[in-house]
Amino acid sequence: MRLRRYVLLRILQLVPVTLVVIVLNFLLIHLAPGDISIILAGETPDPAYLQHVREMYGLDRPFLEQLWRYLVQVGSGDLGMSFRSRQPVFDEIIDRIPATLLLVGTAMGLSVVVGTWIGARIARRPGSAVDSLVSAGAVMLFSVPVFWFGLMLILLFSVQVPILPAMGMSSLDGPREGIGRVLDVAHHLVLPVLSLMTVSVGQYIRIARTSVAEVMGESYITTVRAIGFPDRRIVQHYALRNALLPVVTVLGLQLGLILTGAVLTETVFSWPGLGRLIYEAILARDTPVIMGAFIAMSVTVAIASLATDLVYAALDPRVTL
Amino acid sequence: MALLRLPDGAPRTPAIVISLLVVALAVVVAVAAPWLGLPDPDAMEAIPYQPPNARHWFGTDNFGRDVLSRIVWGTRLALIVAVVSSLASSILGIVLGSISGYFGGWVDGVMSRTFDVFLLIPTFFLVLLIVALFGQGLQYTMIAIALTTWPRSARIMRSQVLSLKSRVYVQSSRAAGASHPWVLTRHVVPNGLAPIVTDGTILMGFAILTEAGLSFLGLGDQNAVSWGRMIFEGQRQLRIAPWLSIFPGLALLLLVAALNLLGDGLNQAMNPQLRRQSIRARGKPPVDLGPPKAEDAGAPILDVRGLKMEYRLPKGAIRAVDGVDFTLPRGGSLGVVGESGCGKSSLGAALLQVMAPNAVYTAGDVSVAGRPILKDGQVVRAGSRDAVMDIRWTRVSIIFQSAMNALNPVLTVRQQLMEAYRLHRPAEDEAAAVARIEALFDLIGIPHRRMTAYPHELSGGMRQRVMIALSLLHEPDLVIADEPTTALDVLIQDQILGEIDALRRRLGLGLILISHDMGAVAETCDRVAVMYAGEIVEIAPTSVIFGDPRHPYTRALMGALPTVTGPKRPLETLAGEPFTPTGDIVGCRFAPRCAMATDRCRAEAPAPVAVAADHLARCHYARDDARIPA
Questions:
Q1: Which residue in the set A16, A126, A216 is minimally distant from B278, CB to CB?
Q2: How far apart are CA A126 and CA A121, in angstroms?
Q3: Please, how many CA atoms are within 13 Å of residue B52, restricted to the half-sphere of its CB?
Q4: Owning domain of residue B490
Q5: Closest residue in B to A152 (Cα–Cα)
Q6: Number of separate domains in chain B
Q7: Are residues B59 and B208 in the same domain?
Q8: Range of the domain at A55
Q9: Which of A201, A310, B387, B591 is close enough to B380 for a disulfide, judged by CB 3.0 to 4.6 Å?
């Protein structure tokens, strides 16, 4: 019962975030130069559609009523129409989610595994030369401009040694179904994932290193050493398990950065996901899509932060709900 | 950056020095750009698509512009974005964070929630939206960065203000009639600034990357040379002129990495805790004595000769265990007493080789049941396996001081006991393990249903009982109990000690009871060793220690012991600070606090003196025939 109450309470806390984001969006629209109806409708030459938009958002009404209408509109999931495709923005975004999810999910998963593994390894000898080098290397990693790194990967593995595809999610003449399709997508996934991993893998190395080193200094680690567990097993089994908690926290906090990286990566590799959609919308000055993406991304990050808290609570028995 | 005062003892690590140099170089280059004798960054004068050569070090682009010159001018933009947006963000954060922390109450409640909300807004997407609505311009980029990052410094400032607010000097200056804003700026803001500067360095790197990403999408300022824009333009020529993309990216990486490394280094310099972790001492190499020989049934369970162990600290070594000898027969019990810091707990950890990473052995031999586990200060191993692994928990186990910390907080009691059981008896199944654990719980008096509890769900006494059950899991010959009752209240203390004593007699256990409580030791142990400054200063049967103590320190400890049955007398207290065994030690370690110290004591370190066959005391005047000249 307490768990359910906690979950409910945390979900309720999503409301203020969503409100702030929508209000911010609304204010920006009103502060921006130019006709609001054109901003909301996109640069359409169709006067009938413009009139429709004016009525829908109540643009001739008082300011506060406009805000209210906007809140209700967006709150009900109506993010407007993309003037480019004449599709609801909501549907456009939903359509692109799978590709982005595949890219972001793979990159994040690999980052956590690889980063935690490296971090835990160097934590066994804190202060050693290897530790200093790898730690500095981790800082370098999250200083890498992800789009530039993507270009360099293309230069190396698609131009110099052409073994990996640099564009898109699948080959034009590739298999359309079955295992062949999976392999084809996986082949296209390699470079974008590698480039997106630079955003987060360095953070995980550092977090894992710090928290494993910290946990290794705890009394209960001394206990298991005294009991006779071998060092390797202590790190893998005990220290890592306890050190995973901070890793989980970072996972949620990092999502905004990773989504940013995804937009840039998708642009470099023409990956047909959300980032690509946003990029195309920018080129075509399709403002409804950009606004929709801003709201969608903010809410996603807020939900991720909520999920992080819940996972944390589930992993650490000391968190009393 | 030079204005920032590094705290005393902050390491000037290579990372900090190199990153400072890189940042300084970037600043110099950005300021001096017009006078470096480089071609105009926008002049399309050279032949296009020249690879790097003697005239154009980084080559030329598709319009015949010099890439090096453009990178140099791009440094300006990068630094402007970095400084302006992080400054705006910090100022906004400092003001709002200070207000929130200073006024507290509902103001703080509302504002803290606001920080959280703004932190969740992804910067880059807000920038995209602003640029889409307002058009391209550097100012919008910087505003958006400041708008989504200010809660970072606001949070730091808030907690700084909260902690400083409670300190006396702020309170007293308020009492003296100072106004709110004055107090805030005069005391609180300067103190909270250091961590914000550190975070600001990292924020600068973030701002540069954000601007570069934006320019890479073609949304940067059209009128300025930007590294991101150079990469954006260069990517179309990636195949024929890769240098157009490579060099600006390297410049970005170099500057951002320098800023991040700098922030990271400063952070570590300001948090000494982060540094202390990294001290790891290297002791003597292990010695391989080949496969362990058969056990000697007649040998004492524990034999310790000349054991020396020291902690390596930045300021020198502390010899926590400094030449300890004793022997414990099977089933025997020894109390080790002394003030905190005398080395008694270090001795316990040293016996099982579970010291802190900065501790090393410098000398000594330890054998368990006749098998050496430490020889001449070298850890004994056979092949790749330390000899101590054969005795940990199966022959010798430890009950640690505070069971709250000594048990893993994220595993249930059952899981922890189960894993310890299966470790040494991998062949046995779960049922056997459960049976053993239940038997132990019965022995110690813990209800079976408490098995599935996490340590934090148990009372202090229960946790300590679990710790005892854990120590008895593999029927060891010797249990080292390190202050097993210190964290408990008096009633439970007696109970637990009584249980340990009863178990010892019932199971024929050897026991080393480490305690500062003379009373506890008197009830439980056959023999008592008194430790002072890393040495055993007196060791004798319990009745002798209490009845005829010979070392002045032992007598002082007795004097500090209240008595219920004896005549009423004022409790003695021991004046002076305990001695820290470090550096060259001349004379008796207790002499500075000893009421009876003579010139000989101050000049000559006493060797253990045999008072009786079973009684050693490290004092020149321990024997009757060597009483202090009156």
A1: A126
A2: 10
A3: 9
A4: 397-524
A5: B246
A6: 4
A7: yes
A8: 2-75
A9: B387
- Percent of chain B at pLDDT above 70? 89
More confident residue, A48 or B259: B259
Task: Annotate A25-68 with DSSP letters as a single string.
Answer: HHHHHHHSSS-HHHHHH-S---HHHHHHHHHHHTTTS-HHHHHH
The pLDDT of residue B403: 64
Q: What is the mean pLDDT of residues A219-239?
A: 86
Q: Which residues of A touch B405 (CB under 8 A)?
A: 218-220
Considering CB atoms only, which of A144, A226, A317 is closest to B253? A144
CB contact under 8 A, B123 and A154: no
Tens of pLDDT, residue by residue over B331-381, are: 899 999 988 888 898 999 999 998 888 899 999 999 999 899 999 999 998
The answer to whether the CB atoms of B349 and A127 lie below 8 A apart is: no
Please state the ipTM of this predicted complex.
0.90
Q: Which of B218, B279, B409 sits opposite A318 (nearest CB)?
A: B409
Closest-CA residue to B483 (of B573, B403, B575, B580): B403
B4: in domain: no
Closest CA to A299 of A5, A25, A4: A25
- Same-domain status, B366 and B300: yes
Helix H or strand E encompassing B444: helix B430-444
B134 to chain A, closest Cα gap in Å: 5
Helical residues (DSSP H) of B11-136, grouped into ranges:
14-32, 67-103, 105-120, 123-134
Half-sphere exposure of B385 (CA within 13 A, CB side): 13
| Residues B269 and B309 reside in one and the same domain | no
- Identify the closest residue of chain A to B245 by CA–CA distance: A148
